[in-house]
Design goal:
The complex is a heterodimer of chains A (326) and B (487). By secondary structure, chain A is an all-alpha fold. In chain A, 74% of the residues lie in helices and 1% in strands. A two-stranded antiparallel ribbon of chain A has the order 1-2. In chain A, β1 and β2 form a beta hairpin. Chain A starts with a helix and ends in a 12-residue tail after the last helix. Chain B is 34% helix and 23% strand. In chain B, the strands form 7 sheets. Chain B has a 6-stranded mixed sheet, sandwiched between helices. In chain B, strands 18-21-22-15-23-24 form a 6-stranded mixed sheet, with helices on both faces. Chains A and B meet through α9 and α10 of A and α2, β8 and β14 of B.
């Protein structure tokens, strides 16, 4: 029993989950409205977009890379979907164009990082600006309004299944799928190996460049498709859609135990991290804490998460480097 | 044959391995063992010659193919994936599948079976982070077994192991042999080679110079094979009459690394610190310079006692250290030659807190001339220079401080013969002008050619001291390997 609990606590996601439960309980007792159906719906609806992008981000972060371009991609995609729909394009075509946009940005990032070996931080920061700039030029002052949004998409954004918003169910299903893939498929395990020891990965025969490329394409593709979710959530899109989301996404991953140094973490953790950040924001609101302090609390949470990680890995005993038989 | 940029690293190397034997591969540093091993591992491809494995040609040049053909190389410091489980480490890149999914259960039971077969109790689902080097090697050996390796190469596996762990490794190696593997064991330790190996092959200067059964090869004969050449007057050592004691080290010790180190260095003297890799030589000089702390004893430079672990004080007192790994510790690779050369004396080149670029360049050029540095432009970044010229920049940087005691750690590793001679000429000149020099070197000809005195370390202890006329290759090697008891 005790060893079972110890084992469970060693799973990286469990402490974050316990923190989440704690936040909800404390806030709930202080402000019972937080426990209501609408409380749960607030959290799950608000977190869906970040959760989806966090799942996507997990693929690159476990490889010791990062993709900052997802905010621009998802915003551009949301606009593209609404714009095409307003010009009479069928739903499948709208979604496909969003997907292709994401795949394109992902392929560009992946090519530069995997084959030209440029640092992903700089590459994806550049594509963040590149995509956002192109998006602004195309969108201009155009705003996608609720009448432009495909009916199916706005239906998803405003309805619930078993009391939980459809958008969260989408994130949930994606999380499960990505979780299974990253646990059970050989190429996905390679991503962990690459992040854990890049130099050794090539030596054991892992096609490092190809895997790196694939991971960026997956992240881009999910961000592209998620444009539909962003559109559903707000029922509108404009040139500033999705701005700044990338930092919330990275924060969610790190809080959820996806190690920024690579090699560790799961989509489950990324989603739990996203939910925790969202819950804390809403909890602080429910407790009457001013909005700016809520951001500061997120900062503290991030620092705590990485400090805890560093502390845990520094507790591992050092390896002996030589012997003396004196 | 294998050459790198015009330098022949291997020529006339041959090695015959029989199934069911443990085969020692011996030779000095730079004899070509590593190059040969890397060729076997698929990291390098030989320019000529061929390798036959069980009657068919061995396809070279790919680490993956080398493994698939049944050759596994275990390096001194294995590179596992710290965040993955041991089972995943064993099967990384080729996990057993059930359909398209990874069969985790099979992977873990198979790993457990392998660990058990090797006689160690490691849990397959713990992470590799924090594993001792000995256990990491076991995981690598398990990996080798899981691909049915016929040839298992261990490159200096015992260098970082405790004696108990060495015993365990030996048992494992003998098991492998009894199961029909050919085990190649690279080691500098004669006692280990004689305890474990059935056959010995010796390399020197990139070629195989001898091979025979262990029981037919006596220790003196083996040492003679390894040393081979005459130590010629390759290096223009200037005879200097030693002056005052500059550095005095008394009973210096550092937990787990070295102890009871006592010696003096006089002005104008070059003292070589010799010994095997891992004997603790670099650790001692790092402690003297103050990069690492020492736990006991004292370091006195020109009558001043130096505090433990304070390199700033050591520098101020007139000490300089040219580290072993110049890329990592000695140079700012992307900065210019001028910046690198002058960085140690910046406060002498500033006026009113501002750096005068002209004097920075003047300093760099002066030293560049003395060292016969070959560069296109003094503003070029250092990573564009050859290894030999990089080493000269590191030397320039420290000579610019005009130290009373200069410590050089492996001053000529990886640089060509011509530059080597220049570095030696330079050290000799500085000594003649009264500088005291400590030279850590694994290259015997360099040690014997340059040093006024040779100190030999083994396993963290100072085990021998030879004056220039008494320092023969045989004496130094046998002291360093512990084949003859001295002191």
């Amino acid at each position: 029993m005790i060893s079972g609990i110890q084992k469970l606590l060693k799973v990286r996601e469990v402490p974050v989950f316990l923190a989440l439960v704690l936040v909800i309980l404390i806030t709930g007792f202080a402000n019972p409205r937080f426990f209501s159906i609408s409380g749960v719906q607030d959290i799950t609806l608000g977190v869906a977009v970040i959760a989806i992008l966090a799942v996507a981000q997990t693929f690159v972060i476990v490889m010791r890379h990062i993709d900052l371009s997802v905010g621009s991609t998802i915003g551009f995609s949301a606009f593209l979907i609404g714009y095409q729909s307003s010009h009479g394009a069928p739903l499948w075509w709208c979604l496909l164009s969003g997907l292709l946009l994401g795949v394109g940005v992902g392929a560009l990032n992946g090519f530069l990082v995997a084959y030209l070996q440029l640092p992903s931080l700089v590459v994806t920061l550049s594509s963040l600006y590149l995509v956002r700039g192109t998006f602004n030029e195309i969108a201009g002052g155009t705003t996608i309004t609720n009448t432009d949004v495909p009916k199916f998409i706005s239906f998803l954004g405003r309805n619930y299944l078993l009391g939980i918003p459809y958008l969260f169910w989408i994130a949930f299903v994606l999380m499960i799928a990505a979780g299974l893939v990253m646990r059970h498929l050989g190429w996905a395990r390679d991503l962990y190996a690459i992040g854990s020891n890049p130099a050794a990965s090539g030596l054991v025969g892992i096609p490092v460049a190809r895997r790196t490329f694939t991971a960026f394409v997956i992240t881009g593709a999910i961000a592209g498709l998620a444009g539909a979710v962003l559109l559903a959530r707000f029922n509108t899109a404009a040139a500033n859609s999705g701005t700044g989301l990338e930092l919330n996404v990275v924060a969610a991953c790190v809080v959820g135990g996806v190690a920024i140094a690579g090699g560790l973490g799961t989509p489950y953790g990324a989603v739990i991290g996203a939910v925790l950040l969202q819950a804390i924001t809403l909890a602080l609101g429910a407790l009457g804490v001013p909005q700016f302090w809520q951001q500061a609390v997120n900062g503290i949470l991030l620092i705590s998460a990485i400090s805890l990680d560093r502390y845990l890995s520094s507790r591992v005993k050092p390896t002996q480097i030589m012997r003396i038989n004196a | 044959m294998k050459s790198f940029g015009g330098v022949k690293a291997l020529q006339g190397a041959s090695l015959v391995l029989n199934a069911g034997e443990i085969h020692a591969l011996m030779g000095e540093n730079g004899a070509g063992k590593s190059t040969l091993l890397k060729t076997l591992a698929g990291v390098h491809k030989a320019d000529s010659g061929k390798i036959t494995l069980q009657g068919s040609d061995f396809v070279q040049g790919s680490t993956k193919l080398a493994r698939e053909q049944g050759i596994a190389v275990i390096y001194q410091e294995p590179s596992l994936f710290p965040d993955l489980s041991l089972a995943e480490n064993v099967f990384v890149g080729r996990q057993p599948r059930k359909g398209s999914r990874i069969d985790w259960t099979l992977m873990e039971t198979e790993s457990e079976k392998l660990f058990k077969q090797l006689g160690v109790s490691l849990s397959p689902n713990t992470r590799a982070r924090g594993l001792s080097i000995a256990d990491q090697q076991i995981v690598e050996i398990a990996k080798a077994l899981s691909i049915n390796a016929k040839v298992i190469v261990m490159d200096e596996p015992t260098a970082a192991l405790s004696s108990k762990e060495v015993e365990r490794l030996f048992t494992v190696a003998r098991n492998l042999r009894d199961n029909g593997c050919a085990v190649v064991f690279v080691s500098h330790r004669l006692d280990e080679v004689y305890a474990l190996c059935d056959r010995i092959t010796v390399m020197r200067d990139g070629a195989t110079v001898g091979s025979g059964l262990t029981k037919e090869l006596t220790e003196p004969a083996l040492i003679k094979l390894m040393v081979g050449r005459e130590i010629s007057e390759l290096f223009p050592k200037i005879e200097v009459k030693p002056g005052e004691v500059v550095l005095s080290v008394q009973n210096l010790g550092r937990e787990g690394q070295f102890k009871d180190i006592t010696f003096n260095v006089r002005a104008g003297e070059i003292v070589a610190l010799s010994g095997l890799v891992g004997a603790g030589r670099s650790e001692v000089v790092r402690a003297i310079f103050g990069i690492d702390k020492f736990d006991e004893g004292e370091v006195v430079l020109n009558g001043t006692r130096l505090p433990s672990g304070n390199s700033a004080v050591a520098m101020k007192a007139g000490m300089a250290l040219v580290p072993e790994d110049r890329r990592l510790q000695g140079l700012f690779m992307s900065a210019s030659i001028a910046k690198n050369s002058a960085i140690t004396v910046l406060n002498r080149l500033t006026r009113g807190g501002l750096l005068r670029a002209a004097s920075e360049i003047r300093t760099a050029e002066t030293w560049g001339k003395t060292l016969q540095l070959k560069y296109a432009d003094i503003h070029d970044s250092v990573d564009r220079l050859s290894g030999g010229n990089q080493q000269k920049v590191v030397l320039a940087k420290w000579l610019a401080t005009e130290p009373k005691l200069l410590i050089v750690d492996e001053p000529t590793r990886g640089i060509d013969v011509g530059t080597k001679a220049e570095v030696h000429r330079l050290l000799s000149q500085e000594a003649a002008r009264g500088m005291a020099i400590i030279m850590v070197s694994s290259e015997l000809p360099e040690v014997l050619g340059m040093a006024d005195r040779v100190l030999v370390m083994r396993e963290g202890l100072l085990v021998g001291e030879y004056s220039r006329d008494k320092a023969t290759p045989e004496a130094v090697i046998s002291t360093a390997t512990g084949s003859i008891k001295t002191l």
